[in-house]
Every structure is written in C-alpha cells, then in structure tokens.
Amino acid sequence: MLRLSQAFLFSFFVWSIGACTAIDERAYDHTFRMNLAGGLHSLDPAFSKDLSTMWCAQLLYNTLVETDSNLHLKASIAYAWSVDASQLNYTFHLRQDIYFHQHPLFPKHQARKLVAGDVVFSFKRLIDPTLASPGAWIFNDKVTAVNPFEAINDSTFIIHLKQPFQPLLHMLSMPYCSIVPYEVVNYYKEDFRSHPCGTGPFQLISWDEGANLLMHKNPNYWEYENGRRIPYLSGVQLSFFDTKATEFLLFMQHKLDFVNSIDASFKDLVFYKNGLLKPSFQKQFNLQKSTYINTEYIGFLSDTTSSVLKNNPLKKKQYRQAINYAIDRNKIITNFRNGIGVAATKGFIPKGMPGYFEDAQFGYSYQPEKAKQLLAQIGFDKKGNAPPITIYTPDNYADIVNFIAKELKEIGIPVVVEVMQASILKQQMSAGELPMFRAQWIGDYPDAETFLAVFLSSMPAPPNYTRFKNKQFDIWYKQAMQLEGAARLALYRKMDSIMIEEAPVIPLFYDEYVHLYQKKITGLRSNAMNRIDLKRVQKN
User: Fold this and answer.
1) pLDDT per residue as tens digits for the range 175-219
2) What is the pLDDT of residues 10-25, one digit of tens each?
3) Concatenated DSSP letters for 74-133?
4) How far, in Å, are 50, 144, 205, 308 from residue 23 at the CA level?
C-alpha cells in the first residue's frame, strides 16, 4: 500500500499535470507520443552523443548498416559489403531506391536520390575539426590521411583504413554515421541542427525547443514489410517535461504512449522487488524489460605517480580487491533497483554483449571473509586501522554509494561519501583529481571493444578515467583488432581477466532497460543498446 503522503502527492500531481499539460490531446490517433526528460539539443546526427539525440537520429536518418533486436548487423543503405584480404579496404554497395526527404533545396522541391558521394560528404564532415563532432573518434586515427572515403560511382563506396580494425562495421551502425545531404547541410551550416533532412522513416514538421516536436511519416520511405510500406504510424510527437516524475504521471493519464524507465520515487509503487510489474499495472500497461549493455561501476585512479594517491591505500591491488569482495551486489539489485539489473560478478564486459562469458572464472562475488584476509595481508584489520577513503558520487547514486560505505565499514574500512554535481564530477574524473568515483560505461556499439578500450593505456579520459595501464592488455588489444570471430572473443576474455585481477574498478551491476507502453501499442522493438525501433509500431 502507498503511504498516505505518497498517495496524496501522486493524486495531486495527476490533477495538476492534467490542468496544465501542453500536450495536444487532439494529436493524430496514429501518432506515437513520448517524452524526452533530458531535453533535446540537436537534430544533427553528428552530435548524437546522448540517448535523446540518438533516438531522434534513428527516426530521421539511416546508416550504411544497422543492428537488429539481437545486436546482429543487417543491411540498411548498404545492401552488401566486403573486406579485402588486407583488412584495410571496406567496400559497400548502396541501394538505389533511397531518397532524402523532400526539400526546397532539391530540384523541383522533390526528394533527391542518395548516392555514394553523400556518404563521402557525411563521413568527411564527421571528422572535420571545424565541426567539432563528438563522434569524430570513430574515424580519427583509423582511416588513411589521403582519400579515406571514396565514391567509385553512385552506388559503390569504399573506406580505407590505416590498419585493421575489426569493430568498424559495428561502429558504422551508430547514429553519428547517419548520411546527410550536402546541399542542405551547406545551406544551413550550424543551423542544420534544427533543419534536419535525412532518408529516415519520419521527417520533421515542427520543433518548438523546450516544448514539443512533431514528425510525420516519410511517404517515400524505402523499407517494406509484407509488401506494405513502413512506417505504419502517421507521426511521432515528443514533449520535453524535464522530470521523470512528471513524465510517468502523464503516462498514467494515457497522454504518453511510452516511457523509458521511471522516476525512483515510483519504483516501489510499480514494481515488486524482483522487477515484475504489480498486478494493477499489469492490467494497464505492457512491460518490456531486457539487457542493456551498460556496466555501472566504482572507479579507482590507477596512476600511482599522481599526488592524489599520495599515502592512499588504494594504490595497493589487494586493497582494491578486498573492496570488490566486500560488496553484496545482489542486495544492491534487490534493495535499490527493484530487481532491475544483474549483479556484475563476471567482469567489466556486461551481460548481453558478445564477449561476456557466463562461465568466466574471474570476477568478484560477495566474500567478506576473503576481503578481510586480503586486508590482513597488507597490514590492515577490522579494528579500523585502515585510513579513511572517499567515494565521490552524483546525487542520484548516493543511496547505493552509502550502502557500499556501510558494507566497507563492516570489514574495517572507513568511508566518506562526497556528493557532487554530475558535471563537476565528470570534469574532475577527466582531470584525474578523484581517487575513487561512481561512474558508468554504456556500450556505443555491439562489440566488446567499446568496453575494453576504457582501459587501453593510449586512451585519454574519457574513456580511461582510471588511467589504467598494462602492457599485456595493450598487446592483446592490438592483436584482437586483427582477428575475427571466436579468436577475437578469446582475447577479449583474457583482457577482461587481466583488468579484473588488477582491479582498477568495482563492477557493480550490468544494467537492464525498462520500457512501459500502453496496451494499444504493438510492434515496438528494442535492443540491448536501448535503441527503440518505431518503424513497425502500430497504434490500435
């Protein structure tokens, strides 16, 4: 049962939002409505660094290849591709029935056919330093300096690499690599962010920034299903209410068709501790809950030359290992996550990612006695003679970090929890100023390289916030980039085991996404990168 105060607040918010909501209830019956609580900063795919922008990019644009609901690569703009024997030249054969949205800058204001020159333009633009795209890393230091992208003819495109890099195809599925038309980009320049033009299933109608955004279906979209052109929806309407609590209450009123996760204050109302919906909500809504390739962790600064670690016990591997053994990750999942997520006891590569091994013998389970033994080996015991350590965390994770502090106190490690603004925390993590910090790493593409690169010595921060360095790890990484299939995964396994042994991080849990959607919605697809596919959604 709800406590009286919680029930009152719930009723009050439902009433107040019903009185002031800006969502147009007269929207099309077949328009999909959702809210982006994090806001939306751009509709330019070159800046799709957050989930909101990525979701919008998928609606407006296409990439050469894409990933399906099982994270397998499938054709998109490119219907076929090949790699030569040197593994340096990737050739893509493009469909000839794909057109950009109708636009006044095209001849006769009609849709224009996509050609290989558009791919060259889009990828060169991505790495242009004057654009300063956060996605430039995809090709920087990987493609040749001269003629990295080549259009042989309108339907054939080639990427030239400096050295083999097996994850490339998966990286090309990222929204950063969406194809854009040069005429529209060159005309609008930086204002392309609010005047998008792509080949995707929907096209922009209006965007009142901070209020709402409306897209209509692209009547010329190139994909078909069972002989019928998709998408089935007439449009997509987005709102930008800035709190997840407001978003959930709008969903409860059926003014939104979908929500991605819910506000923590409602989790006990909606979910049992095992992650299942409570009966009253099962009757009203559908739940989509599955693996999300995101590892939540505590990081340790590993640069032993840093003054930040002067006289700090975190410099000792046994100390870091002891902390790993002292934490009951299953309690975190049950008590703070309502069963959403999986305890991270098998390495840093998360469950659901190729390269995660359920039978892995490395990893940390809850073994407090083993933790005490490791502390004793380096001169500490439960009498409290270990010096205090500080964990820095953003406010939204303070409850979990306070639980960890309590667990560590049980084995004799005093902990101070320092709550910081998320942006400041990330700045100080990047600058190497924090000895111990709360963080997460979300996979950018479905290859475990995206998680292992976090610990590559040549990587800056981000992603290598811990400043981890290991020569053998680096050697295996370089070898893995030239291998395919099982051979590459075998090296990934070895790399993950080295990192776990050295313990520059405490993997806490592998995440899961939670989607709630109205009963009248069918055909909603998602994958482990939390990318939603609305192309086949129907609203009955």
Assistant:
1) 999 999 999 999 999 999 999 999 999 999 999 999 999 999 999
2) 443 343 334 334 444 4
3) EESSEEEEEE-TTS-EEEEEE-SS-BPPP-TTSGGG---B--HHHHHHHHHHHT-TTT--
4) 24, 49, 16, 50
C-alpha–C-alpha distance, residues 472 and 502, integer Å:
12
Residue 114 above 90 pLDDT?
yes
In this structure, whether the domain defined by 292-513 belongs to CATH 3.10.105.10 is answered with yes
Confidence bin at 274 (pLDDT 50/70/90): confident
SS (H, E, C) 441-504: EECCCCCCHHHHHHHCCCCCCCCCCCCCCCHHHHHHHHHHCCCCHHHHHHHHHHHHHHHHHHCC
Q: Tokens representing 157? A: 């495109």
Nearest to 363 by CA among 510, 499, 468, 512: 499
Amino acid at 128: D
Contacts (Cβ under 8 Å, ≥6 apart) of 145 = none
Residue 530 has phi, psi (to 5 degrees) of 60, 40
Domain ranges of the chain: 31-239+520-539, 292-513
The residue ranges of DSSP E strands in 398-537, in sequence order, are: 415-420, 436-442, 505-518, 521-522, 525-526, 532-533
**pTM greater than 0.85:** yes
Region 53-68: mean pLDDT is 97
The CATH class of the 31-239+520-539 domain is alpha beta
Cβ-defined contacts of 489-497 (< 8 Å, 24+): 489/354, 489/355, 489/448, 492/349, 492/355, 492/448, 492/449, 492/452, 493/355, 493/357, 493/360, 495/452, 495/455, 496/347, 496/348, 496/349, 496/355, 496/360, 496/362, 496/448, 496/452, 497/347, 497/360, 497/362
